[in-house]
Design goal:
Helices cover 56% and strands 6% of the residues. With 314 residues, the protein is mainly alpha-helical. Among the domains are: 135 residues, Potassium Channel Kv1.1, Chain A (2-Layer Sandwich); 69 residues, no CATH class. The chain has a three-stranded mixed β-sheet with strand order 2-1-3. The chain has a two-stranded antiparallel sheet with strand order 4-5. Helix 7 runs antiparallel to helix 8 and helix 11 crosses helix 13. The chain is globular, with a radius of gyration of 36 Å. It starts with a helix and ends with a strand.
């Protein structure tokens, strides 16, 4: 078999081992010809698998969060039943004890005309209420005394939140299976009316909704209304992901609160304030540092010697 010079460079080692008289050639595929396509397919496949797994984890987390809230609801119900049973355990009537009948009687008065002596105004409707029920729950309803008013103005509250507050006042029951925004607004309303049991219940429910994305905002709200349990829970999550936050995450936080957080989370609060571009926090740091410097410079004492001379000790 004759090979032209133009073809000689393309002859493979398989052709050289063939019999000279044979015109059969074995095609040779370069080793790298399908490597790129194979890698691309593998990468796309891995991305698809990861996306599927992330979706499954998010669904699982959502189910766990819902289950947590349901368990909190069940726990609260058991607490209520235990309180009723404890209060009426010494009564031989059992279900017809005075405490049981009183609680059931009050619950049935919700938005009823019977014995109603005042109204609560919401944004689109009025709810009939009873002074003695409200007075039994709290002394802080935004008025000097309930005896001097015939209505409460709750038009500034979301209607759904106002209804939930009043329904809890009468029945001691509230559904917190909705989104965390409703629960957060309900907790604010409970704090403004000094309804501590309702506020604590909302706190426990919100802890199941805390994520890296909303923990800073929830921390701010919890600090404003004194929800210490929720605040401490958010603080732990903030500490864990401290280096992952951006200036936008703290943009809504006041300078004093943010400065307090910096001092508790890092040994270099000034560096943290500069990294997050908060000039107001830097200003607070400089004021405190300057005050400490002045205090140190004024930390002296004057003593008198035996011969009557005065000495300054720094």
């Amino acid at each position: 078999m004759r090979i032209d010079k133009a073809q000689r460079g393309s002859v493979t080692w398989r052709e050289r081992v063939c019999h000279p008289s044979s015109h059969f050639r074995i095609p040779v595929t370069p080793l790298h010809s399908g490597l790129h396509d194979s890698n691309s397919d593998d990468i796309d496949g891995n991305k698809s698998v990861l996306s599927t797994e992330v979706g499954k984890l998010q669904q699982h987390l959502s189910l766990l969060r819902e289950q947590y809230v349901r368990l909190q609801e069940r726990y609260t119900t058991l607490e209520q039943q235990h309180a009723i049973a404890t209060a009426g355990c010494q009564s031989p009537e059992g279900e017809d004890s005075f405490v049981t009948r009183l609680l059931r009687f009050v619950a049935n008065l919700y938005d009823k005309e019977k014995y109603s002596d005042m109204i609560v105004r919401l944004s689109s409707r009025d709810i009939r209420a009873h002074r003695f029920v409200l007075a039994a729950r709290s002394d802080n309803w935004g008025v000097s005394t309930l005896a001097e008013v015939d209505s409460l103005d709750w038009t500034g509250l979301e209607e759904e939140v106002g209804e939930a507050v009043l329904h809890w006042v009468y029945t001691d029951q509230v559904s917190l299976l909705k989104d965390h925004t409703f629960t957060l607004n309900l907790m604010r309303a409970a704090a403004s009316f000094s309804l501590l049991p309702l506020m604590k219940r909302c706190e426990k429910a919100l802890m199941g909704w805390v994520t890296v994305r909303n923990c800073v905002r929830l921390y701010t709200t919890a600090d404003e209304i004194g929800a210490e349990t929720l605040r401490d829970h958010c603080s732990t999550l903030i500490s864990t992901h401290w280096n992952d936050f951006t200036p936008e995450d703290f943009s809504h936080m006041t300078a004093p609160l943010l400065y307090t957080m910096f001092k508790s989370k890092t040994s270099h609060p000034l560096h943290a304030a500069i990294r997050l571009q908060r000039e107001d926090v830097v200003f607070l740091y400089l004021i405190e540092y300057d005050a400490q410097s002045v205090q140190k410079s004024l930390n002296f004492s004057i003593k008198e010697s035996k011969d009557g001379r005065m000495f300054l000790f720094v």
